From TrEMBL:
Keywords on record: Methyltransferase, Transferase
GO MF, one annotated term: S-adenosylmethionine-dependent methyltransferase activity
Domain of life: Bacteria
Protein name as annotated: Methyltransferase type 11
SUPFAM superfamilies associated with the record: S-adenosyl-L-methionine-dependent methyltransferases (SSF53335)
GO biological process, one term: methylation
UniProt xrefs under InterPro entries: Methyltransf_11 (IPR013216), SAM-dependent_MTases_sf (IPR029063)
Taxonomic source organism: Rhodomicrobium vannielii (strain ATCC 17100 / DSM 162 / LMG 4299 / NCIMB 10020 / ATH 3.1.1)
Amino acid sequence: MPSKTPSHARAASGEQSWNAAGYEENARFVSDLGADILSWLDPKPGERVLDIGCGDGALTAKIAAHGASVLGIDTSAALLAAAKARGLDVRAMSGEAIDLPREFDAVFSNAALHWMTRAEDVIQGVTRVLKPGGRFVAEFGGFGNVAAIVTALRSAARLYQGNAALAHPWYFPSPRAYEGLLYKNGLMCERIELMPRPTPLPTGIEGWLATFRKPFFDQFEGKVRDAALAHAVELLRPSLRDEDGRWWADYVRLRVAARLLPR
């Protein structure tokens, strides 16, 4: 039976938190799949690169391996600690409030910008730190990303009297909308693509939900939480679990390469 407790009485903070070990187990595919967008960046020896939302530094380290001088920023203390353990130069800073000098040849981001819903603040920060002619290369969730997952979570929120807003805390723009936002803030798109990319989940849909939507389920208590999870999983089973029993995420990625316009 649906819970009769008002949602405000059990609401979670809604803030996403990260656990380095859990991320490694359930979401290592995020950086593993970043090779293509890293090729768009094509970092050169001696370049200064900013990595927004660097996480545990898996891709930051690959940029540095090309001979670039890389600074990674993130807001998760746990993931920053993991990045520092790789010997990387990282600091705590939000991509929505970048406070750095204009010293970067390139700004890069993989699988992070969809968590930053103040997209224009991010883009303005990018333009502030890029040298003349500098480039911006990113991949993140685009229009239609995890649509089935969001729909299943919204159904669970409705059935169990939860906060449906916690089902979709992200920013997933269309190419046209994002290209317009870039141009408005001084960046010219050289390449932009919206790409469906069904992605296998090594620990199933439960592992994905535990990693990326813990705040949604934390709004519920005890058996209601378990029931909400079971409801979402069952709704997703026909569309995201294949005949061999493997789970997939219905990812749609937006890839962009842009360059700072002359001032």
